[in-house]
Amino acid sequence: MELAQRVSIENRDRKDIYEYVERRGSISAEAVRRELGFDEEAFGHHLAVLRRDGYVREDDGDLEIAFDTDTGTVHELDDGRFTIRTARQADLSGLVGIIRQVANDGSYIEAETVADLIDYEEILLRNNSAESRMFFVATVEDQVVGWVHLDLPETEKLRHTAKLTLGVLDEYRGRGIGTTLLEKGYAWARENDFEKLYNSVPATNDEARSFLEAHGWHTEATREDHYRIDGDYVDEVMMARSL
């Protein structure tokens, strides 16, 4: 499903199925069928159409929404390889832990907020009339080691923009994984007609600011004393990149 469609399902039954799956993140097809009261033949037909049109997919026997069909691209390292792929609902708990590790020193408040939200909702990907978000992950030997997240406004006047967060575990930094994740986020945003990306970091996070600046980001504004970290007031640096 291309995001530009913004879930334009005209058939009421198919829309009900999609919305049921979207609200739960991941659920078995049989559970959806029973809960919504479909007979097997009608449900099978509607599900086949939703799969054909790219609205839902099946992962390890459970249904979840599908933003795209990206199953992963392998990249070589000097001592191995890593894969960039679309996140799956099964990545949720591990991804929450990784985001918290990256942000555990209070230097990346936007990432902390993302971790809190997906941990509370227990849903990774969203695409509905109220909120949409996309995640890609980097994996090494099937273990998630980094992510790029795009928060996608549903307000018409902001639909050309997206908020991006990005992180890689300390032990995997300096190997090109963060840059590859960032480029994946850029490519997906361009393909879906976004024009501008935003990210905000505390002024004390020199590493993040330098990384973003090296990849074409610039500071648009600074909010003085916006954060209070360990009792100290810290400025928020609001950064952006045009696509």
Q: Any overview of this molecule?
A:
By secondary structure, the chain is an alpha+beta fold. The chain has seven helices and twelve strands. Strands 4, 5, 6, 7, 8, 9, 10, 11 and 12 form a nine-stranded mixed β-sheet that branches. A three-stranded antiparallel β-sheet has the order 1-3-2. Helix 1 (12-24) crosses helix 3 (40-52).
From the helix content, strand content and strand pairing, which structural class follows?
A: alpha+beta
Query: Kindly, what is the distance between the CA atoms of the first and last residues, rounded to a whole number of angstroms?
Result: 22 Å
* Beta strand %: 25-35%
What is the number of strand segments?
Answer: 12
Instruction: Report the biggest beta sheet as strand number plus sense, adding barrel if it closes.
Output: 9 strands, mixed
**Can you write the helix and strand succession as a string?**
HEHHEEEEHHEEEEHEHEE
Q: What coarse outline follows from CA principal-axis ratios?
A: globular
User: Low-confidence parts, pLDDT < 50 over ≥5 residues?
Assistant: 1-5
In brief:
Helices cover 34% and strands 33% of the residues.
Properties at a glance:
9-stranded mixed sheet; alpha+beta; disordered N terminus; about 35% strand; about 240 residues
Q: Layout of SSEs?
A:
Blueprint: H1 12-24, E1 27-28, H2 29-36, H3 40-52, E2 56-59, E3 62-65, E4 73-77, E5 80-86, H4 92-102, H5 109-121, E6 126-127, E7 132-140, E8 143-152, E9 161-168, H6 177-191, E10 196-202, H7 206-214, E11 218-229, E12 232-242
Parallel strand pairs: 9-10
Antiparallel strand pairs: 1-3, 2-3, 4-5, 5-7, 6-7, 7-8, 8-9, 10-12, 11-12
Helix pairs in contact: 1-3, 4-5
